[in-house]
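Researcher: Can you fold this with 2'-deoxyguanosine-5'-diphosphate in place?
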Amino acid sequence: MNDKILELQRKMKKKLDVYRYEHTLGVMYTSAALAMRHEVNLDDALVAGLLHDCAKCYSDDKKFELCDKYHISLTDIEKKNTALIHAKLGAVLAKEKYGVESDDVCRAIETHTTGSPEMSPLQQIVFIADYIEPHRDRAGRLDKIRYAAFEDLDLACRMILSDTLTYLSDSPKTIDPMTKETFDYYVKE
Ligand code: DGI
Ligand code: FE
Ligand code: FE
């Protein structure tokens, strides 16, 4: 693995709590495995997986402060559901703080929580890897979604979005319109 990735790994180990760091390594290697299968650039998959939650472990106050600093505008849904902010903020930090030059990598970080219509293969891979990495054990039919991920990226996205919408409808959290829009897009695909 190249030195740049090892250096980023050291930084993430310092920035994230133990649980989040282990999840991050899971997403990094799962993204890499999916990239091998679906012929996507391996380094991009490793870096996107490694940095996808780089903004996750800040306090809400710090997240708002950083969004201010980098002129990131938040929707009302994001302001109320602050767990969503780390995706947008992480994409900007990847570029500005961690020196990522690939727009596709930054977009993959930005869309990893809600997804987005017309995701690139790399974006789909990070979105899926976040859901299926080996430490995840709460979601239903994980075995089927893990299998689908290595067969058909669109199908795996559709399954994850469908299950996420069901899960969110049963919870007090508001569904981000982007999650619904992404689901509608992948149902039509
Ligand atoms: O950061 P992770 O925990 O690895 O996973 P993630 O980036 O998918 O974030 C999960 C969080 O995002 C979890 O608290 C649920 C929330 N989330 C995902 N989609 C939506 C959402 N929250 C709301 N309110 N609306 C959504 O559509
Ligand atoms: Fe996340
Ligand atoms: Fe994650």
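Model: Folded with 2'-deoxyguanosine-5'-diphosphate in place. Residues 18-38 form the longest helix (21 residues).
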